[in-house]
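Sharing a chain and its predicted structure for anyone who wants a worked example. Both blocks are below, sequence first, tokens second.
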Amino acid sequence: MPWNDQSGGGQQGGGQGPWGGGPRRPWGQPPRPPQRPQGPDLEDWLRQMRERFNMNGGGNGGGGSGRTGGGRGIPFPIIAGVLFVGWLMTGIYTVDEGEQAVITRFGSYNRSTGPGIHMNLPVPFEARQVINVTGQRTETIGFEEGANREIRDVPDESLMITGDRNIVQIQFRIYYNIKNAVAFAYNVRQPDLTVSQVAESAMREVIGRRQLEPVITTERAAVELSVEQLMQATLDEYESGVQVLQVELLNAAAPPVVIDAFNDVVIAGQEASTLVNNAERDTARILNEAQAYREQVVRQATGEGQRFIAVHAEYRQAPQVTRDRLYLETMERVYQRGNLIILDQRGGAVPYLPLEGMVRRPATAQPEGNR
């Protein structure tokens, strides 16, 4: 066995030196320290990469030679070409009906495209944003809708102060669409949130100029129209590209915590209005009666005056006859209810008359049996 043979000479020794005790160098020198594994082999890494792109998939299993077996790998230019074509195809896009695509080049607006198939330069040269410009959008203010269309009040948005310093609960919905896609995309940050905030601000301003009772009763349509006009003017000033379609006032009422007191105030107001109406009705009736009485007295006085003028004209033509007539008519009017008999003695004769038959006698009461 050679001195430098550390294999143990076959089956004996178990891999120990000639003197036993494990592998040692001659004359008892200590063994060499084990070598640490080196870093990744660049040649092996390149070989693995070639095997991954091998069309036949895998090598010959021999290992260590760095050659692939069974087929030839795809050349790098072809791989680069496929990747380049794929990168170019990312610029192909489709715009549906009712949409517009806004194209920016290096972050600046470049152009807009309508419905159809289009192509733009891939990232990072150009970017696109497709916006639905005809679809109707909605925003709710003052409440939130749950999964089962349950309405949950949002007090921070719904509670507002009226012009007469009362608190009212307002819940409404906004309908709008896009009239300018470029302005909508780039002039205002978070345009949907901007529309909601402008709507709430416009409603608070309109409610602050009105009284509570008209807001919750007769002026709901006027409030909707005023908010719509104020919103549109504000959004146009911002150049937001938004067109307000409708403002729908869903709820306008006193808050639940003060609804009882508010109802008492409303009832008191109604009773006051009823009393005022009754007083005005009685006043109108009394005035009408007084007017009718005045007209009657005036007409009667006017008639008496005209009659006196007519009698005076006749008296001037025949004073004696008129005097006798006035005397007789006056005596008749004075004694028409008296039991008197008046004889004119100017005739010179004393007539004999059955005076008893001319005296008025009251009618005697008849017995009940003869009725």
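Comments welcome. The longest helix spans residues 259-317.
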